[in-house]
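Two quick folds needed for the group meeting slides. Do the first one here.
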Amino acid sequence: MAKFTINVMGIEQEKGIMNVIMQSVSREGKYELPVRNNVQPEDLMANKLVNYKVLTRNLVRNYPKATDVYEYNAGENFTQAEVKGAQKFLEEEKKRITKKKPFLTTYQYIYLPIFIIFGCFGIYKSFFDKDLKSNYEDLKIRHDSLEVKYKHVVTKFDSLEIDYNKALIAFDSLAKETKILETKKTNDTLNVKN
């Protein structure tokens, strides 16, 4: 199993490695690195330069030798990187690529006010529509009539409750009278026998 180690580099070490790679490409026309399992700082810097199109990478297979080699050649942006300095060029490219996008696109700037205008018009129309007003007035009239009917039913219920209470009182008094009459009858029958 292959072991991977990553060496942490400082900015000065990055600049040094980048300068070595750039100088060898400008003098010899190529820079060769063996294909290896452990990633080395040179590999990282060369790959970074490939990502920003300063160099191009080709895999060269060496059949007589046991190791294959990555061959790095000058890319599209090689001359610009050589003139500005590789590190400075990479920083500028990184800023250019990761430029912040605006919050809204131009189409959104156009459509947003249109959407707001039509939305407000729709809200206005729904609140101030004559049909809705007439429906509201009809419902209010119905509510008032139902409220009057409810009050009438409540008064009828109250009068029925009063009549019920009177009937209960009358029933109680009738029950008392019947008891009194029964006791009188029994007393009269007892008096007659004596």
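Then this one, please, same format:
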Amino acid sequence: METSLRYNSEEKQLYLHAKECFLIDSSFYLKAHGRLNTHTGLTGGTIQFRRRFTPKVITSLDVGGKYDIDGKEFSYDIQAKKTLPITETGLLSLDIRAGYNFNPGLKFGKPRGVVELNYKIFNFTEEQDVRLRVGYNPFQRVTLLANKGEQLEFQCRLQWELECDV
């Protein structure tokens, strides 16, 4: 189970976040996310069931459903990712991610996507690797700057978010 503490500039409240991915077989998985607001004590989360395809044209394609515990809503989801290595070692790459989420109850869909330049630095310190990301989300018209180490992640969009693995 992956756990982390999360704080962002918009909500200004600390969350304890946990997620677990259960592999059902080589292409099916169930992912559960949960969070606890340390200020109010409110809980929330999502449960996702997905099937992963690995066609030759793209790096991965996930199709499935998601249940949001907060809004008590079920939605269908599809997402794709393509990684284009820029260097032979693969340490510098261009990642393109896109997806679409459809809520049948509201009869409403929401597209999402991002184009990112990723740079991986192995052995940044004796025990830590670092990944630097710069990207753009055309649907939200937001640039992204992120620095992720083994235990600490800092993301900056229009607001900032700090995540610390526990």
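Slide caption for protein two: The radius of gyration is 17 Å.
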